Input
Amino acid sequence: MNKSTTMIAIDLFSGGGGFTRGFIQGGIKVVCAVENSPPAIRTYSENFPDVFLFNKDVKKIHSKEIRGVIKDFGEELVVIGGPPCEAFSEVSVDRMKDPLDRLYKDERGRLVLEFIRITGDLNPKVFVMENVPAITDGDLRSALEYEFERVGFNIHFNLLEASKHGCPSRRRRIFISNVKIQLEPSKQITVWDAIKDLPEPGEYQDIPNHEYTPVSKKRRKRIHKLRWGQSLVRFRGSSGKTYTSWTRLHPFKPAPTVKGNSRFIHPFEDRLITVREQARLMGFPDEHVFLGSRDNQYEQIGEAVPPPLAKAIALYLRRCL
Output
C-alpha cells in the first residue's frame, strides 16, 4: 500500500458507534455505516453526522448500494462490524444446543452470514468482525472458515482482551479478520482511574448522560451491604454457568465485562453508576452522546466494541499494511 493512501471503513451493525469511534481515533476514515435499531441510529447520527448511515435491515442491503456511497473515495477499503452475539453467547438462555444451528438456523446468528456476504461482494483490503469467543464452539470454527473461504478469504481468529489495550473493563472477544492482529499491551486502567474525576450526577451540568439512575429504597438497603465485587443479582446462562449483575465495582481493578444487561454499583456510593460512568468503563469519550431511553443507552454501551481497543486495531492495521 502506498504510504499516501488513505484507508476508509464501512461499519456494519454499527450500533452506538464504538467501532467507528475507535477507528476514527486511529486515523481511519469511516464513510458508511449500517444499523436498524432506532435508538442506536439516533445515537450514531448524533455523533457521526458526516458518516452516511443506512437506516435499514442489513439483510435488505445490496452491496451495490454501499458501493454507490464509497465509489468517490477511491482509497483502500476496510469492512468492520460486530453482528449480534445473542445466538452464540453463553449468557443467552435461549441459545440453541447445536452450535451449527446457532449460525444457520437462529435468525440472529444468520446475521453473521450477511456480514460475510457483504464482505465478499465488496472485497476489501481488510475486514474485522467482532463477536463473543463462543462463536468458535464445536464445528462453528470450521463453518466460519468455510463460509469466508467461499467468498475468497482465509481468516484468523484473534482473541483480544480489552483491558490490555486501554479499556478499564475486562472484555475477551474474538476478532475474525483476513490479517493476523497482534497488539502490544498498554498500561492497565482501573475503574477509579476512569471515573474519579466525574462530579456528582445531576441534570444541570455539561457532561451528557450523567444523571442518577433511580433505585428503590429496598434495593438501596441491600446495596449498602455489598462489598467490592459482590452482586445483588445472579442468573444462569445457557451453559449452566452463573452470571452476575448489580455488582459493586472494585475501584482499583478493571471492571467486569460490560454487557447490554449489565448494571454496576458505584465503588463508594450506594447507587448504580450513571450511563456516563458506564461509558467510561468502555473507553468512550465524554463527547460521545447516547440517546434513547436510559435502558437503551446502557445497552448500546454494553453491546459496543470498546473504542480504545478499536483504536488499537486501527493503528495496527495502518502500520502493518
